[in-house]
Fold:
Amino acid sequence: MTRPPTAAQRRVIDAADPVTGRLRGAESQLTALVKRGLAFRHPRPPHDHFLTPEGHRVRQGITPVPDPAGPGEAPAPTGVFAARVGGEEAAADAGPARRREVHSAWQGLLELRRMTNPGGGTDRPCGWERTHLVRAAALALEAAGHAPAGPEGGGYRVRETPQPEAVAVHEPDGAALRACAATLEGAGWQVSEHREPRTGNRYLLASPRRA
Structure:
């Protein structure tokens, strides 16, 4: 798990604009938040700093966790918020509190797109998503109501691939797999369907759309 913010960093996060996530603070504190993935520096003047989706989660009292360690691994259960990539022990928990957290994270991500994409477009992934592919794709799926796989399967699993800017989405049910493809396409991802050479099972390759 990532270390919690320092008291000074937490004060900067708590003082962020509740709608845009815009930050005010000492340059050293803002730089530290960027390094920890809790904030980003806007590429256009005046180069203000804003909370990332993880930063918004911290502001709401939910600490972020890192990406899965490898292509076949899901994050260990920690009791803190993370987009569910499939395979977690807690994947069956889809109660109202979880749905609120996911909805809030998705709205924060859309705001991040609006603030950083040229022209303020929210119809395609932003830079943060391109550096957090697994979590970004999983958040799009979970926010749309798709069920992540539990430890025994029965839902989607998002995993890294050797290909740059591409994740694999596995779902044993063919109709559910096609529904996942439609969701990702609607969220601004390019999606293609493939078969595993050894098993013949179908899966998706998804990459963030650039234009």
User: Anything to note?
Assistant: The longest helix spans residues 96-116. The chain is about 35% helix and 15% strand. Confidence is low (pLDDT under 50) at residues 62-80.
